[in-house]
Amino acid sequence: MGVHCSKFFFCCGHSHLKPSLHDLSDLENGGENEKNALPSFTEFSLDVLMIATDGFSADNIVSEHGEKAPNVVYKGLLQNGHSIAVKRFNRSAWPDSRQFLDEAKAVGNLRSERLANLLGCCCEGDQRLLVAEFMPNDTLAKHLFHWESEPMKWAMRLRVAFYLAQALEYCCSKGRAIYHDLNAYRILFDQDGDPRLSCFGLMKNSRDGKSYSTNLAFTPPEYMRTGRVTAESVVYSFGTMLLDLLSGKHIPPSHALDLIRVKNFSTLMDSCLEGRISNDDGTELVRLATRSLQYEARERPNAKSLVNSLMTIQKETEVPSHVLLGIRHGTATPPQPLLLTTTGEACLRMDLTALHEILQKTGYKDDEGIANELSFQMWTNQMQETLNSKQQGDAAFRAKDSITAIECYTQFNDGGTMVSPTIYARRCLCYLMSDMAQEALGDAMQAQVISPEWPTAFYLQSVALFSLGMENDAQEALKQATKLEAKRNKN
Description:
Blueprint: H1 3-12, H2 31-37, E1 42-43, H3 46-52, E2 61-64, E3 71-77, E4 83-89, H4 97-108, E5 115-116, E6 118-122, E7 129-133, H5 140-145, H6 154-173, E8 187-189, E9 195-198, H7 221-226, H8 231-247, H9 253-261, H10 265-268, H11 279-292, H12 303-311, H13 321-325, H14 342-349, H15 352-362, H16 381-398, H17 402-415, H18 421-433, H19 437-450, H20 455-467, H21 471-490
Parallel strand pairs: 1-6, 5-9
Antiparallel strand pairs: 2-3, 3-4, 4-7, 6-7, 8-9
Helix pairs in contact: 6-8, 6-12, 8-11, 14-20, 15-18, 16-17, 17-18, 18-19, 18-20, 19-20, 20-21
């Protein structure tokens, strides 16, 4: 549907989508039906939440983070039949019970159909728990990065961006402009398939305000300098979300901006969307992402302007979200069993010796000609030096001399005449063997940028993420690798 038709639907109010937040009555209190359904903020007893989650059973864990952000989210069922999500903080996160309660109540006063709303909390002894609406249809990360049958439709991606901008504007209008660690795992889908922003991110992970548990490549630059989250930092994170929606990958902003500067949009865009979007729509999302990712915080747009821009490019506005998302109305997507390959099992065990043998056996066959594109330059001294670095690195890699291999592969990469995802993969493993997990993750992500459909890049990302204590992200990377390998074996 064209832009003019979309505007007509918004103006006349006949669309499945709600109008923008200029009319807050449609979003505040979740609309009339949800206003009646949602209770006011409640202080739950620990006994009630113990019963609801079967004693915080491991079977009810729906998301879990490692030791860098030690909190766990459980699915629960209240005696009145309402499904809930319960976030349980570690014992040292909020020692001041009054501070925790005040913060939770402030977030609990928000009510919007763009949020997975906070229903209450529990603050008994040293226990600190938050209780929110349960969203049954998984996260944006699941539907965007780890889809089973078909990729997310372009119209749905635009709707996610629009609803997310609306959620952020609503929060800003209520004095809650700060959102901690905005990412694809924070966007949840309700029973209608509508995307909602998790309320958990409106509270700090703890009283010290440590917020960014994701890779530093995605962290707002000012956070690196000050350690503080600002409203402008949230817009920067929104920009990384736009990149996710455009590319279908969790691509580092620096790499994406480099592609945008040289107008290499085809590499940036999700290949699954080829021929399904107009140049104008893609260009507008690229423009909004670029503005949101400005290095200087003051040069980024605010949430209201993002809502206005995204409203004009919505597509298929009369189609319900559950149809666009490809799910049955009112039901959750059934979990799919994950059958790990030999490489996947090695990653789960973090068996670096087995991974070394696998990479050594595979060699460079997965480079698919990338490393040989400039072979006609063999006669130049620079090319010969580059190849010598590669050969010396390979010899060190075979001998498991990680330090020498890292040095030689770094010289190869710095030469700039050739790119090889295999060399990034090999250096990644050497970093892992040297207990340099952050550097290893950077190399695994670089290998993915060069070869987006290469399972090995995702396998290595999973090991690096496991090493960093980022359990949930690691499991998702492992799922993606398994899916890509199964797809490759079919062809």
